[in-house]
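Example protein was shown:

_____
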Amino acid sequence: MSNSSNGQRATQQVGATILVVMMEVDEADDAVFNKWYNEEHLPERMSIPGYISARRFMLDPEDGPANGVLRYLCIWELENDSPLQSEFYQEQNAKPTPTKEAAGAVVKQRARGLYRQIFPTAGGFDDRAGYTYPDGTRIGAG
């Protein structure tokens, strides 16, 4: 796995648990929010044992908020839920920084969920053998 100088990885690591966080921020506040998330929050959380990786996304403007989802999404890959119960996590939450407070002030809405993997039992589903419908129609490889 290759690492770049800013902590980005060329391949994704998969955990058995994911923490999904969605946030809504006005476009005018994007700079302060993204500065905190990218430069402080990601490195801070990734320093906690049990965090595996994180990826951030922004909602496609054409999809729009009409679908009931928030504009920003972060998917945190975790070994299990233990990082969220750890002393490290509690200590980080108790240490506000000016950047964190500024970002917190611009978050209009937030949704968070902890998900445990149910299928496949480990890793990711990568079977590309194709599929046969009940009527016998075959799609994909093979």
Summary: The mean pLDDT is 90.
